[in-house]
Specification:
The complex is a heterotrimer of chains A (644), B (99) and C (522). Chain A has 25 helices and 3 strands. Chain A is mainly α. In chain A, strands 1-2-3 form a 3-stranded mixed β-sheet. Chain B is mainly alpha-helical and 99 residues long. Chain B is 78% helix and 0% strand. Chain C has a domain of 219 residues. In chain C, strands 1-2 form a two-stranded antiparallel sheet. The radius of gyration of chain C is 23 Å and the shape is globular. Classes of the chains: A mainly alpha (644), B mainly alpha (99), C mainly alpha (522). Chains A and C meet through strand 2, helix 5, helix 6, helix 7 and helix 24 of A and helix 13, helix 15, helix 17, helix 18 and helix 19 of C.
């Protein structure tokens, strides 16, 4: 049982201050990109010429509106910083009412800025990146659809509304991973992503159902108000089911395998969906459901364990990948592991989870777009063994990527330093083992990112024939610069503890954690570990020439990391192969046993009548004999009845 | 007067007719055997009519005779036609109406 | 306006149209009969919309637009029509899909065993009879319509379609007749039981619902109806006729069969099983729930393993019908509302899926998934429609089937967590069967055989677009349907004497005090 006495405060209640003034435009934030998507996807070829501008304009307009709303929120008192906009009643069944409501509070405000801000930059970047693709209009249509769905996800005021956005981003992700669907690998990766996400959706479906059964409603307002009265079992159940959902969407262990395959999509997609926004939806879900998780220690422990496992797994996978995007994808997994871990720490960690989510959104989008810029110059080659010495050829890309690199390493004063250190500190305050996991993860992160930097930008030229690296056009570099600036300055969000204060009304007050050692010493320790990671990378990768073909005689650990720690092999052996065999057996069962029973009955009757038919042989005298036999039987029967 | 001899005679006639129908191939003979069986039953009807002292059995016998006469008309016509077309009066040859 | 015989008009308008069609001389060509048929079904749709507009959601009457005339007095049989919310939605589904199907199968009747005129005449007749089934409020009349619908669908399957159509038609007919026979026993049983009462024999649903049949009799009668409806629906293990039939029939016939006629099964479960035999329904619930969950998983797994597109869609329907039956028998307002809504939504999504894959198959001349590949490249509009139809079949939020499937899962969860947990695996399996099919047909390198495909033409787009539009609109705004379904569900729940379980936490109690929280922690 949760010891409520040990919690200083009950989780805050989601209020329902109706919208007024500028906030009544809230729906427009979603409607603009949704309309853009509809025009582009239904309009067809007619919109080919100007479609990408329309899409970019729609998202940018959403961003401007988000800024206006954000400042509107800043201008209010802490208590009134949550507004609810009722759009329409979605569905009603008996006492169960689901309304189409939007909730704009401190948490969704930050997400709005991240999604539309980074989204706009990536739209601009894509204008250049997708310039030569004949289906560019469709790409922008999908991107707009994604942005609209993601906004629904973070603005919904009801778990069912979250589900709508949740699946909407899943659909957009499916469409965009499989954008180059003439490639069978892309089509397969897209399907895999959707299906694995659906496994997570089991959690969200059942979690929502359990919420309804427990609270009689699924709106945040009702659930947050009543959560403290729910039984332990219900809360833990809801928590674990929501965690399953988060695992699917955020590529957390054991549903992590789809993310690496998802790199089949165009690079801007990887930056927007599979780094900055969609994959962090799981973290959003946990933080948004703080009124559940704050009250259930057991579910939080599970969250922490999942976070720890994934942050180490992702980091290890990132170490062994030669594909620049897959290395970054491993890193994304790992960084989201940090966020999930932070979210699992409860009220002490929620704000830092969101903080790291934002800074990660900046620097990882920056690096993915940088990787896209490199690929753009290298004829879409993703193998880092074919890179090298790109520092001179692509100065802007190098500089911006470098800032992202420093940010993810956690070098002060870049953004990652502020957010990651906070998580590691809080983790140590909670449990030394968890803290150690996070610390080791930071070291490994330093290793693989340094390896990536060295293989791409330093060393000798290992370019393939006919490749002439060049800097990307302005339309691509300007978003890079903007994201680099954000990566550098993202730490300002925590100036005077602003972000914690800002989010506290949503996630709940908490006592300051107490570390045995001063924070500055902790930071120094982390920096030492990071430096060690960099040094190891320098000695293992930077000092030696890099072979153009990956060496095959490597340690067991490298092999395991290259095989994504056997996640796919495990799924294949445990789920897919038995599944295929089972379906084969079931098909046989259906045709032989189930249908066989029906068809068999028919066959038996047909065979019987074939035999009886032979009696009708056409010989009059045999009919007469049958007649006689029949009459005899009747007579005998009569005799038996009368005299027997 | 005892009815027993008549009943026995009727049974003998019926049995002869029955065996004839079952064993003979010639349609005309089969036909005559059928008539024999009908007459055996007629004999029985009249016997019991007499024994019981009412006329119902005799009426029934007349009915049988009328039916038998009608049957002869139709049956002989069929047998004649078959004989004309197939040059055979064997009932086994006319076995086309089968499965 | 409510005295106007709306339902009789809806019932007889298409049937009269069918008779006129048959009487037209062959010298008039093939186009005029088609236009006449489409015109009749559009007119019926217009009448249907006008009727729906007159439906009063606040009315205290159970059945609206009621008509009642004595038919066979000695049986107590009446010509009695009337609809509640459930009947209304299904009547509307019928009249909406009929013109869509006719437009989509414009040329499908040309190569049949009989003329295309007969094809359209049978379709019209089927439309009229289906309205009769959903509107009958007399068990005897229902039974007559129930069996009568078999005639047109038998000729539609057996006369037009693929190679195995004759065999498929016979298999379908035998299954349906078997179900009908079992039901006939129960229908006769109802007469015997109702004749025992003082009021005398009656077949009116409203009067039968007041009777108490006693435990044993009620259960036997229930079983008779249930078996017939389970075959119709179809549920595992009496489902095998459906894949065989859809594989042989034309897409339009499959739509009418799966989207409309199979709903008679689930409709009958609500109207007759639950409302006439509440005690027996409660008694049978655990077993039915188990079979429903098996149907969900079994149908989905079989769909994954199918290489034949119409067979695959048939198996998906078996899975979806599992959800509907589950929603009906958990007997709470979420489950029943979800199930009722599901019937309508499944009709739309399956219709879209059958029609769009029908267009695909007609271009290739093969129904095997393995014969396609990379169609998206040459026919992007076709691929887009296919994807949307598929996504609606896997219940993507934002498309109409989501609301219904979600409500069924919620309803099932309040009945039994285990049942819901098993049922919910259906959503993963649905993603696999739909996307696996899409992946193998639409994506990848374009195969040579499909490279000459033309994209959808205007007629094909015109037949699909209304269905998809309806799917999207009802996904966000299902209120028009739910506002008529909710009162009907309340009535059904009242009949089976069930009330919704209250939430474990009282939402009205203030949750701010730690002490009050202590009370609920045990």
């Amino acid at each position: 049982m949760v010891t409520l006495e040990s919690l200083p405060h009950l989780p805050p209640v989601v209020g329902s201050v109706p919208t007024d003034g500028v906030f009544s435009l809230l729906w427009l934030v979603i409607a603009l990109p949704a309309l853009g998507a509809a025009i582009l996807l239904i309009g067809g070829k007619r919109t080919d010429k100007w479609g990408h501008y329309l899409a970019t304009a729609a998202v940018s307009a959403s961003f401007v509106l988000s800024l206006v709303l954000f400042f509107g929120l800043l201008g209010r008192d802490g208590e009134e910083r949550q507004v609810t906009q009722h759009l329409w009643d979605w569905f009603t069944a008996g006492s169960y009412q689901v309304k189409f409501d939007l909730l704009y509070d401190q948490l969704s405000a930050l997400f709005l800025l991240l999604i539309t801000g980074v989204g706009s930059l990536i739209h601009v970047y894509s204008i250049g990146y997708m310039e030569h693709d004949e289906r560019r209009r469709r790409f922008f249509g999908y991107l707009n659809l994604f942005v609209a769905s993601m906004l629904v996800l973070v603005l919904a005021a009801d778990y069912v509304g979250v589900f709508l956005g949740w699946e909407g981003v899943g659909l957009a992700s499916y469409l965009l991973i499989g954008f180059w669907q003439h490639k069978p690998t892309a089509a397969a990766a897209a399907k895999k992503a959707f299906v694995v996400n659906r496994v997570g959706d089991i959690g969200l479906s059942l979690g929502t159902a359990l919420i309804f059964v427990t609270f009689g409603s699924t709106s945040f307002a009702v659930v947050s108000a009543a959560s403290s009265q729910a039984s332990d079992g219900a809360l833990t159940g809801i928590g674990l089911l929501l965690l399953l959902a988060a695992c699917g969407k955020s590529a957390q262990f054991p549903l992590q395998t789809w993310l690496l395959d998802a790199m089949e999509g165009p690079t801007p997609v990887s930056a927007l969906i599979h780094a900055a926004t969609m994959v962090t939806a799981g973290v959003y879900l946990i933080v948004r459901s703080n009124f559940i998780f704050s009250l259930t220690e057991d579910a939080r422990t599970a969250v922490i364990i999942i976070g720890c496992i994934t942050l180490l797994m992702g980091a290890v996978i990132g170490c062994a990948k030669d594909d620049i995007k897959k290395a970054l994808a491993g890193s994304t997994m790992s960084q989201i592991g940090y966020m999930v871990l932070a979210a699992g720490l409860g009220p002490a960690g929620y704000a830092f989870a969101i903080f790291h989510l934002l800074t990660h959104g900046f620097f990882k989008a920056n690096m993915f777009l940088g990787a896209g810029s490199v690929m753009h110059g290298m004829n879409d080659d993703v193998n880092m063994r074919h890179y090298g010495a790109l520092q001179k050829a692509m100065p802007v890309t190098f500089a911006t990527f470098g800032i992202g690199y420093l940010a993810i390493l956690g070098v002060p004063p870049f953004a990652g330093f502020w957010s990651k250190d906070k998580i590691i500190e809080t983790a140590f305050a909670d449990n030394v083992l968890v803290g150690l996991c996070a610390l080791v993860g930071a070291g490994v992160t330093a290793f693989y990112m340094t390896r990536l930097m060295l293989m791409t930008y330093a060393g000798t030229k290992r370019w393939e024939k006919g490749v002439h690296p060049h800097e990307s056009p302005k339309v691509m570099t300007v978003p890079l610069i903007a994201l680099a600036v954000l990566s550098a300055l993202g730490g300002l969000l925590t100036l005077n503890g602003w972000i914690s204060d800002w989010l506290n009304p949503v996630v709940g007050e908490h006592e300051e954690h107490h570390l045995a050692i001063p924070a500055i010493v902790m930071s120094l320790i982390i920096l030492v570990v990071v430096a060690a990671g960099v040094a190891v990378a320098w000695f293992l990768v930077g000092k030696k020439p890099i072979p153009k073909v990956a060496p095959t005689e490597v340690s067991v650990f490298t092999k395991a990391a290259r095989a994504d720690l056997y996640g796919d092999a495990f799924n294949d052996a445990v789920v897919i192969k038995p599944g295929v065999a089972g379906i084969g057996a079931l098909t046989t069962f259906d045709t032989t046993v189930v249908d066989g029973a029906a068809e068999g009955t028919a066959t038996v009757f047909a065979a019987m009548s074939a035999q009886f038919r032979l009696l009708q042989n056409g010989f009059v005298r045999s009919y007469a004999l049958a007649l006689l036999a029949g009459a005899t039987v009747v007579v005998l029967a009569l005799l038996a009845v009368n005299f027997g | 007067m005892s009815t027993e001899p008549f009943v026995i005679l009727s049974a003998i006639l019926f049995t002869i007719g029955c065996i004839g129908v079952l064993t003979r191939r010639n349609a005309l003979v089969v036909f005559m055997c059928v008539e024999l069986m009908l007459n055996a039953s007629n004999l029985l009807l009249i016997t019991f009519s007499r024994a019981n002292g009412n006329l119902e059995g005799q009426i029934a016998a007349f009915f049988v005779m009328v039916v038998a006469a009608a049957e002869v008309v139709v049956g002989l016509a069929i047998i004649m036609t078959i004989f004309r077309t197939r040059r055979s009066a064997s009932v086994d040859d006319a076995s086309l109406l089968k499965y | 306006m409510n005295d106007f015989p709306w339902l009789s008009l809806l019932l007889f308008l298409p049937i009269v149209g069918a008779i006129v069609l048959v009487l037209l001389p062959a010298s008039l060509g093939t186009l005029l009969p088609k236009q006449l048929a489409l015109g009749t079904s559009v007119a019926t749709l217009a009448v249907g919309i006008a009727m729906a507009a007159n439906y009063d959601t606040d009315s205290s009457k159970v059945y609206q637009f009621a008509e009642q005339h004595e038919w066979i007095k000695s049986f107590g049989a009446h010509y009695a029509l009337g609809v509640d919310g459930v009947g209304l939605t299904l009547v509307m589904l019928t009249v909406i899909l009929a013109p869509v199907v006719m437009l989509a199968s414009w040329n499908d009747g040309d190569q049949g065993r009989w003329s295309s005129k007969a094809f359209f005449a049978w379709m019209l007749a089927l439309q009229g009879l289906a309205v009769g089934v959903f509107a009958a409020t007399d068990v005897f009349l229902f039974y007559v319509f129930f069996e009568a619908t078999l005639i047109p669908i038998y000729f539609l399957i057996g006369g037009y379609g693929g190679a195995n159509r004759a065999r498929a038609a016979v298999k379908f007919l035998l299954y349906s007749l078997l179900g009908g026979l079992v039901m006939l026993a129960s229908v006769i049983g109802l007469y015997v039981e109702s004749a025992k009462t003082d009021a005398g024999a009656t077949y009116l649903v409203g009067e039968l619902a007041q009777l108490d049949f006693g435990t044993a009799t009620g259960r036997w009668l229930f079983l008779g109806f249930f078996i017939a409806f389970a075959i119709k629906a179809p549920m595992f293990p009496v489902h095998t006729w459906l894949p065989d039939t859809t594989a042989a029939a034309t897409p339009g016939t499959s739509v009418l069969l799966v989207s409309v006629l199979d709903k008679i099964g689930t409709f009958g479960m609500i109207r007759f099983c639950l409302e006439l035999f509440p005690e027996a329904s409660r008694w049978a619930t655990p077993a039915v729930v188990v079979f429903a969950v098996i149907s969900i998983i079994y149908g989905a797994l079989m769909a994954i393993g199918s290489d034949n597109i119409p067979r695959l869609i048939a198996y998906t329907s078996i899975s979806h019908f599992g959800f509907i039956v589950l929603g009906i028998f958990v007997m709470n307002s979420q489950g029943l509302n979800g199930a009722n809504l599901y019937m309508f939504n499944h009709g739309l999504s399956t219709a879209a899926l059958f029609l769009v894959t029908g267009f695909l198959i007609s271009r290739r001349g093969s129904a095997l998934i393995s014969d396609f590949g990379g169609v998206e490249k040459v026919a992007p509009v076709l691929a887009g429609f296919f994807l949307v139809a598929g996504l609606s079949s896997l219940s993507l939020p934002g498309l109409s089937p989501f609301v219904s499937e979600f409500l069924v899962i919620v309803g099932a969860f309040s009945y039994s967590e285990v049942a819901a947990a098993f049922a919910v695996t259906g959503i993963v399996l649905a993603a696999i069967y739909i996307l696996f099919m899409y992946q193998r047909t639409m994506t990848g390198p374009t195969r040579e055989e499909v490279s000459g495909f033309s994209d959808l033409n205007v007629r094909e787009v015109a037949s699909l677009a209304p269905v998809l539009l309806l799917i999207v609109v009802l996904g966000f705004f299902p209120k028009p349907l739910l506002s008529v379904i909710n009162p009907a569900v309340d009535h059904t729940l009242q009949q089976v004497d069930k009330t919704d379980p209250p939430p474990s936490v009282d939402p009205l109690a203030p949750g701010t005090s730690g002490h009050s929280a202590e009370g609920s922690h045990e």
